[in-house]
Amino acid sequence: MLQLTNIRENKDKVLAGLAKRNKDFSVQIDEIIALDDLRKKAQQELDTNLAEANKLAKEIGDLFKQGKREEADRLKVRTATLKESAKGVEITLNDVEQQLKQALYLVPNVPYELVVQGKSPEENVEVVNWGENPNLSESKKPHWELAEQYGLIDFELGVKITGAGFPVYCGKGARLQRALINFFLDEAQNAGYKEIIPPLMVNEESGFGTGQLPDKEGQMYHVGIDNLFLIPTAEVPVTNIYRDTILKEDELPIKMTAYTPCFRREAGSYGKDVRGLNRLHQFDKVEIVQIAHPNMSYEILETMVEHVKSLLQKLELPYRILRLCGGDMGFTSAMTYDFEVFSAAQERWLEVSSTSNFETFQANRLKCRFKGTDGKTQLVHTLNGSALALPRIVAALLENNQTKDGIRIPKALVQYTGFEIVQ
RNA sequence: GGAGAGAUGGCAGAGCGGUUGAUUGCACCAGUCUUGAAAACUGGCUUGGGUAAUACCAACGGGGGUUCGAAUCCCUCUCUCUCCGCCA
After folding, report:
1. CA of A375 vs C1' of B30, distance in Å?
2. Edge-to-edge strands of the sheet including A368-371?
3. Cβ atoms within 10 A of the Cβ of A360, count?
4. Distance CA A188, CA A186 (A)
5. Cα A10 to Cα A1: distance, rounded to the nearest angstrom
6. Average per-residue pLDDT in chain A?
7. Which residues are CB-neighbours of A281 under 8 A, at least 6 positions away?
8. What is the per-residue pLDDT across A147-187, written as a single tens digit (0 to 9) for each?
9. Which of A37, A324, A359, A398 could form a disulfide with A334 if both were Cys (CB 3.0 to 4.6 A apart)?
10. Positive or negative, the Cα torsion across A282, A287, A293, A298?
11. Which residues make up the interface with nucleic strand B when CB must lie under 7 A?
């Protein structure tokens, strides 16, 4: 959620920034400012009304103490009319506040200066391209065939137990999964991130805090009887640790990492996108999250990018990094880097990480602030990134490392898997 | 799931329906003293709205009600604790 003061004071800048998303928000912004004006007016009216009522109440109290009953009763009549009008104003105020909130919910974050305008993924900017694509033989296979051939993942069994998009990992497949999780967590810990094991379900407030609610509830699994949501990413519970919090400046930055399964309904997906491990309803991910000082957040974003890079390099996977254009960026992000690995058998790029700076957009909803050394309180910046999401890493590992003798495990991972090759 | 008790500022803990946004202690910050520190003393120390700055308004778990006036009374929801039941 954008900050009202920012919208009011830097309207042109905000609009120019939002234009990079290839949409015009001037109508919404004007409406927001108009609603805020209304809000202020109503609030003022209510305040003066209440001020008078408070004054009268005090006088009445004094009169009672002095035993001047009749005079007090006369004043009581006046408070009755005040009360009536206050009620009306209060209703308007609540109504306007509600409308203002709704309007604010519909405006996405303002892209950072480095972000280019654009409407589709083609306009994303490639900033890094690392590694060589492997030369695979003509008989190369996609990961879903390899997974079946070596008995690593049973998609059919998942369908039987739960449904499509819930694979069952078996034997070395399961072991590989656990190896990757431990590898990612250890790397994060070595980079100074504190490990968290959060709840896998969150309440409504947390959903609002990180922006999944109100408009993306269709993407989350909802447990109706208790009104809880299965987390679509560890970002939700981990970032919400700092909801309604005022930190001290010297506590920043806060670095956290968490492994969790992630649950996504992925309503509307179809075709080759959902084949095999490409898109799942349940998948594993290690997330890194930072709560940062506003002056430091872009520097920190770069360190997070470096961290993800190092993971992919240790896994010997060729990758590229895209700086997303305005139109392809998520609603809450100010700048996002997507990491993609090349799947040699599918001959397509697979997104394995998305690392973003949300600036104050999430913090504003979370009410996560810090008190500076100057004594002033202001919003923090929040950042997060996948480091990494497992399924597509597994897909790329299987496909890119397939040999006639089996699937080769990258060196860095062998100490975690306990085997060098899957046969 | 059943019965009872409770929820107040960073923490602890007062609070009679009427200068209580809230006594006090601890913690914290600044100053005095000191070569420095500790101790002692003095002052500061919740958040949000609003303003050029004051005024002013709101908030004592959330929501609603009674009253001229509610942290204080009533209803309701949530959560915590104790006991019982069930159970990894």
Report:
1. 12
2. A245-248, A368-371, A377-379
3. 23
4. 5
5. 15
6. 91
7. A163, A164, A165, A166, A263, A264, A265, A266
8. 999 999 999 999 999 999 999 999 999 999 999 999 999 99
9. A359
10. negative
11. A 4, 40, 43-44, 46-48, 50-51, 53-58, 60-61, 64, 76, 79-80, 83, 246, 369, 371, 377
Question: Side by side, which strands form the sheet with A402-403?
Answer: A402-403, A406-408, A421-422
pLDDT at A64 over 90: no
Tens-digit pLDDT profile for residues A377-418 = 889 999 999 999 999 999 999 999 998 889 999 999 999 999
Which positions in strand B are less than 7 Å from the protein's CB atoms?
18, 47-51, 56-58, 68-69
Residue with tokens 């950072």: A112
Rounded to two decimals, the ipTM of the complex is: 0.84
Rg (CA), chain A: 27
Provide the CA A194 to C1' B36 distance, Å, integer.
37
CB A175 within 8 A of CB A150: no
In total, chain A counts a number of residues equal to 423
* The two structure tokens encoding residue A34: 């108009």
Residue A149 has a CB neighbour count (10 Å cut-off) of 14
Contacts by residues A344-349 (CB-CB < 8 Å, ≥ 24 positions apart)? A344/A133, A344/A134, A344/A136, A344/A140, A344/A396, A344/A399, A344/A400, A345/A136, A345/A140, A345/A141, A345/A142, A345/A143, A345/A399, A345/A400, A345/A402, A346/A142, A346/A143, A346/A272, A346/A395, A346/A399, A349/A320
Q: What is the rounded CA–CA span in Å between residue A8 and residue A33?
A: 7
Rounded to an integer, what distance in angstroms lies between the CA atom of residue A264 and that of residue A350?
18
The whole-model pTM stands at: 0.91
CA A401 to C1' B10, whole Å: 54
